[in-house]
Amino acid sequence: MSTSPAGPPPPADGLVSAARRNLRELAHGLSHASHPSTPLLAAAPKPWQRMLPYVVVLALTATFIPVTINVLTTQYDVPGALAGALGVAQAAPLLMLAHRPLQAWWIIFPADIAGALVVLSRSPGPDALWPWTAPALIAYLFLLLALGLRETRRTVVGVWVVTAAAGAALHLVAPDRAADSALLLSILGAVVLVIGAAVRERGEATRRLAEQETISEAERAQRTLLEERTRIARELHDVVAHHMSVITVQADSAPYRISGLSEPAQEEFASIAAAARESLGEMRRLLSVLRSDGTEGDRAPQPGLDRLQQLVEATVRAGLPAELSLAAELGEVPPAVDLSAYRIVQEALANVVRHAPGARTQVSVRAAAGHLNVLVVNGPAPKPVAPLESAGTGHGLVGMRERVRLTGGTLDTGPLPDGGFRVAARMPLPPAVSPSAPPPSEDL
């Protein structure tokens, strides 16, 4: 009877290789700190918070050195010189807990083992703990807490395993002695490490959340800017399309309006009209890309300064006391400036309605020194009236800045001392044509 070939046997050293790899990672975690030697709470906003870890470790060191020496000499009958050396070795490294807790563990842990071996050779009292003395046990818990706050989970688990193994090994060395402190340190050490690791992970999660919120806020601001630019581009499409249409009509009608045109001139006008039509087609395709899905184009003409009076009257009917001061003669206002001025006033009045309902508002539009000056100033909101929005998104100011930048002007916004707000835009106007200068000729 034939048998089907069996699959390849699993590698015999799979578990051994995994164990070796984990041991290497554990050894690396115990020998290499996972963080730079920056003090704990180094990023705290207040100076006293940054100094707090140093005050704590200084107090711990100043407390545990004399207490350890006193316990070793009185309860364990250790000679004074040896007790002093052990006390300094076990407690002085506590000064490193603020910035190098793992390096402090490298010193304190061997010193505690040496202290346990010294105590093993003495005759302690009936109530004396072994293998870890009471001061060594409490100081070690502070050390474990610092490790839990700074080191990775693998490192703190490795420290706990090594500590428990050392306590078990010392108990095997002297099984006749009760190793109560070894069991107590293992239990309390696990609790302290869990608490420290939980606090550290919560702090890291909070920090990552703050970083993500900062990134999200920057992305939101960038998205808002792009949306405002797209909206402005859609609005300016009508302005540019109007001029392109005029060019097309003038180029098409030139051979009929101007007699005696040569054949090359007529071909040139035809070429200009064709280029204008092609440009209009490209603009329509561009507008279809800029327009959001499912939205229709605005068929109404874009507003301008001639509709400011209607805008202010509608605002007054909505309950906002507003006044308009519009110069009778503004000169020639380019379409882009005309549209931008209207939108700036519109957005400024909308912001007053949202954030300071009922505040008296003054709108002024003047032409001076070759610039169109748009000023919207509102006073403080009446106290009985609550604002519709407690905090703005800033989208309106973004749109204002983009419109002013598009025209080559400047925008100044900010709060007033009395609690109001001021929006001032200054946009350049084309130079006025001198009456003595001859008008440009339309003949070729």
TrEMBL record:
It comes from the Bacteria. It is an enzyme of class 2 (transferase). The chain crosses the membrane at residues 51-72, 78-97, 129-149, 156-175, 181-199. It comes from Streptomyces anulatus (Streptomyces chrysomallus). It catalyses: ATP + protein L-histidine = ADP + protein N-phospho-L-histidine. Residues 340-430 form the Histidine kinase/HSP90-like ATPase domain. PANTHER family: NITRATE/NITRITE SENSOR PROTEIN NARX-RELATED (PTHR24421), NITRATE_NITRITE SENSOR PROTEIN NARQ (PTHR24421:SF10). SUPFAM superfamilies: ATPase domain of HSP90 chaperone/DNA topoisomerase II/histidine kinase (SSF55874). Keywords: ATP-binding, Kinase, Membrane, Nucleotide-binding, Phosphoprotein, Transferase, Transmembrane, Transmembrane helix, Two-component regulatory system. Its EC number is 2.7.13.3. This is histidine kinase. Residues 228-293 form the Signal transduction histidine kinase subgroup 3 dimerisation and phosphoacceptor domain. Gene3D superfamilies: 1.20.5.1930, Histidine kinase-like ATPase, C-terminal domain. One of its GO terms (molecular function) is kinase activity.
